[in-house]
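Researcher: I've got a protein sequence and the SMILES for magnesium ion. Could you write out the 3D structure of the bound complex as structure tokens? I'd like something to compare against our soaking experiments later this week.
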Amino acid sequence: MIRLVDVHKSFGDLVVLDGVSLDFEMGATTAIIGPSGTGKSVLFKHLVGLLRPDSGKVECFGVDMATAPESDLFSVRRRFGMLFQDGALFDSMSVGDNIAFPLVHNRPDMNERARAERVAEVLEQVELPGIEDRRVSELSGGQRKRVGFARAIAAQPEVVLFDEPNSGLDPMTSDAIDELIVRMKATLGITFLVISHDIVGTLRVADHIGMLYGGKLIAYGTTAEVVRSEHPMVRRFLKRNIHLPDDDGPPELPRL
Ligand SMILES: Nc1ncnc2c1ncn2[C@@H]1O[C@H](COP(=O)(O)OP(=O)(O)O)[C@@H](O)[C@H]1O
Ligand SMILES: [Mg+2]
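Model: Sure. Here is the predicted complex with magnesium ion in place.
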């Protein structure tokens, strides 16, 4: 239902995506990994039509995101929850208003009371019950991430895009976010598409991993397959972050 077919994207002379094809499996968590600046965020922006490919196809829920009119893009975006790296919360608004924001825009069927109930419910799910009236500016980094998470799932999206869930977080908070992803997938059946340069967190949450490097997907498979990849760049990237054995023994996967 969500797929890229031979997607090319350049900015001027800078080739960012150089023929990327990928079928995302629904109901699973797929992580896109790769060093900074390899086009992970650019790839995600194509999925919701914030960027259009120079050539190739981006298909989401049957809509060709490259050619669809803006009104179709809007209906596709409603099915996504998005948590972008730079997509900060509105500092001047309360936590509750931040979370209600996608509901106001995407769920015209909900009245104010239903929205307030939904906000309370998702705040409980991210283990921050009752903080609706707090200002975003009063929150810690980890709390902000959780509130962003609550906002991303508020409108009950089928797919959640999570750009760098662990960036800027201390290890314990980072673990808590990973646990939330695993739990939300299991309990709500959400399809998570996560991008990360933090391989440790990725290995814990992902069912499938794709590695982007030099504009191409140089590895794609189940988490277990990718950690066994023979590709030198994949091994180099993984080795910097986890212990890979030199013989053919099974790699140690980090656990929650
Ligand atoms: N809108 C844009 N205009 C020009 N260059 C961009 C734009 N968006 C991203 N880039 C460039 O594309 C490359 C990949 O960026 P990005 O996808 O953000 O990397 P990352 O893998 O770290 O998420 C970077 O060199 C970045 O500067
Ligand atoms: Mg990025």
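Model: The radius of gyration is 18 Å. The chain has a mean pLDDT of 89.
Researcher: Great, I'll pass this along to the crystallography team.
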